[in-house]
Amino acid sequence: MLHPNVSRLLNEQITKELYSAYLYLDFSVYYEAEGLDGFANWYMIQAQEERDHAMLFLKYLQQNGEKVTLGAVDAPDKELKSLMDPLKAGLEHERYVTSLINDIYAAAYAEKDFRTMQFLDWFVKEQLEEEKNADDMIKKMELFGGDSKGLYSLDNEYAARIYTAPSLVL
Ligand code: FEO
Q1: Atom 1, ligand 1: which residue's CA is nearest?
Q2: What secondary structure letter does DSSP report for 67?
Q3: How far is the CA of 144 from the centre of ligand 1 (A)?
Q4: pTM for the full model?
Q5: For the segment 78-91, what is each residue's pLDDT rounded down to a tens digit?
Q6: 3-state class of 128 per DSSP?
Q7: CATH value of 4-159 in 1.20.1260.10, 3.10.100.10, 3.30.70.1560, 3.40.50.2020
Q8: Using an 8 Å Cβ cutoff, are 3 and 107 in contact?
Q9: What are 113-169's pLDDT values in tens digits?
Q10: Of ligand 1's atoms, which has the minimum distance to the CA of residue 53?
Q11: What is the residue-averaged pLDDT of the chain?
């Protein structure tokens, strides 16, 4: 049995990850409407990954015999007025998610819950990748996005992203 504090935070993280999926779906819709299918594809796949993250938290709770409580998922609330806006909002959001993972880790550490810490290790590493990807996209947009050929080439690059299931299996 997990400590109630750890269990509560893990439960809340399911909803937060689903919000991430919803947010990236919104980004995908925005880029699709702007005619940038590649960017739309990248965020559609990102939304799938976030759903996977939510499922990992859900399964971990179930495996530990914990009650799963699904909360309400907020509507995406980022203002998207330029091609750069989703990218910047994405980095800001991933930094926030990193802080959430760290909070759960700290709660698990406080309770000597080494099992949950080991489970979270995958997410700690994943967040490094998530922040790096988001930061790289901003840098590339700054470098190449101002020019139509550069933007076309970036869009083609993001069109090539394919979905891969998470390496963590529960
Ligand atoms: Fe589930 Fe993008 O972190």
Answers
A1: 50
A2: P
A3: 26
A4: 0.97
A5: 999 999 999 999 99
A6: helix
A7: 1.20.1260.10
A8: yes
A9: 999 999 999 999 999 999 999 999 999 999 999 999 999 999 999 999 999 999 999
A10: 1
A11: 98
Q: How far is the CA of 105 from the centre of ligand 1 (A)?
A: 15
Pocket lining: 16 vs ligand 1, CB cutoff 6 Å: no
**Tokens 């269990």 identify what position?**
7
Expressed in angstroms and rounded, the spacing between residue 54 Cα and the centre of ligand 1 is: 9
Burial string for 98-129 (b: 16+ CB within 10 Å, else e) reads bebbeebbebbeeeebeebbebbebbeebbee
pLDDT at residue 161, as a whole number: 98
Which residues neighbour 71 within 8 Å (Cβ) at sequence distance 6 or greater? 11, 12, 14, 15
Ligand 1 contact via 130 beta carbon (within 6 Å): yes
- Here the tokens at position 127 are 């967040």
Q: Is the CB of 26 under 6 A from ligand 1?
A: no
